[in-house]
Amino acid sequence: MGFLYDIIVVGAGHAGCEAALAGARMGFSTLLITMNLDTIAQMSCNPAIGGLAKGHLVKEIDALGGEMARIADLSAIQFRMLNTKKGPAVWAPRVQSDKKVYQQAMKQVLERQERLTVLQDTVTDILVDKGSVRGVATVYQQSINARAVIITPGTFLNGLIHIGLRSFPSGRFGEFASTHLSDSLQKIGLKLGRLKTGTPARVLRSSINFDKLTPYPPDDKCETFSREIKKFPLPQVPCYITYTTQRTKEIILENLHLSPLYSGKITGIGPRYCPSIEDKIVKFPDKTAHQIFIEPEGLSTDEMYVNGVSSSLPQDVQEQIYQSITGLENVRIMRYAYGIEYDFVTTDQILPTLETRSVGGLYLAGQINGTSGYEEASAQGLIAGINAALKIRGDEPFILRRDEAYIGVMIDDLITKIPEEPYRMFTSRAEYRLLLRQDNAYQRLAVYGNRFGLIDDATLDDVLRSMERVSAEVDRLGATAYRDITVAGLLRRQDWTYQRLIEEGIISEPSGLTDTERFQVELEIKYEGYIKRQHTQVDKMKKYDMWNIPSSLSYENITGLRREAREKLVARRPATIGQALRIPGVNPADVQLIMIHTERLNRSNTSGKK
User: Which of 22, 207, 352, 359 is most exposed, with minimal Cβ within 10 Å?
Assistant: First the structure.
């Protein structure tokens, strides 16, 4: 059987774009199939990139050679660094984007990429032969053969939109759902679950009373996501803050019986950390007002996004809700809010490479794995694309550890914890977050991007020279005496900064250090003890993450293993002792038994080879 393509990517959302670009850039003929060429990389919900922990993911995508960071910079119309009142480990860059500029820029990159073909069609079937994928069938073609297939359907997988007690199949409002693909995934043996998400209304700018709103301006100092882009090309504009009122609460409670979420019509589980306005009112009954952000959809449109008021209530009720919000008394809705249910594949069925356990060469990325958010999807798409290319090449798979990247944390969480609600990245999920800062993503990951041909040699050399400059400056401050201590010791004091050392003439102005490098020097010195402690923790856990569990290990034959632990281990088949430790319901005593039996099995296998 001949292969027409090396890799086929199904779906051109944020995950699909990264997967297709990675495959093509690594030298493999790649086909990206989308139901509509005009909605490639569409921002279905908030036109924004980054935010808490999500900004870290975008920086990591850039460091590995992905595209999201660059396109986010080209389309940015407001930059803010979030969480700056807290420690630097949780600082998070975020941009409001012009959604049409983002779409068009990404579409152009895809169209101009060598070895990548973009096709408008609808995939109806996944073709499998003897446990391995061999391609797809579409509405127009019975079969398109490929060595690997990456599925990235977003919310289209058996999507069902809810507005009040009315519901209808759709992947996004006005677009067809992908129903045949759900059937095909089940036919090849994958178990599906059901999740729910939603989006707020879009309103007309001229119908808002901005005098009642508080401006939320961009930062004076803007930092791009991508190392390649030095300055945002688009103008920076404000967003605005307002609040719900007591009347908002009354309207929602009076009409709660019309909510598909509370009437039982919606069965999928929604995102706990991005709830609908109905959920907020019900779950926080003592709160008198909820903060709302009014954000532009772009520079060339008067549509405004009402961040914080997603809803699936009927349209007439939505009108009442929105007009009860301060400053929106006369607002005109241009697109109504809605809720959407969709299928996903439970992640006990995928490997850390994002390849399915049951079908070789079939990869899943994005919301199909139970995640939410553009950034989470893009990161998975990039990893799936890299691993599909590596498998075709015959190379070792690429699996990031939890101490290496937020991407590693996310995928490890998906594999070991299995989402019961849409998974969203948070800094609190990363136990080594002081090592995984947004400012050092390139130092952590560029060597991998270069290894895969996604980061060029010149960029890697620049990163390595930057690391040397930071290290040399840390050494200089540690070796420079100031009164009875070193300059590094002085900098560790709470009221001292690197800039103050220069301004007061304690150290000379360093030559060639960028602002980011100065920031890193200060962090390396101020947080030296904490950083060393985290490295010690990493070394301790690393031995467990490198302790492989043989695939032949039979959990049923381990005497003393608790029933709950046995069931979880059989279902998830952890690849390492570290993964086993992180599975909920598996305790240290269970893991100790696994380690004993793993050692016995390894000794047996070794003696059998002699």
Answer: 207
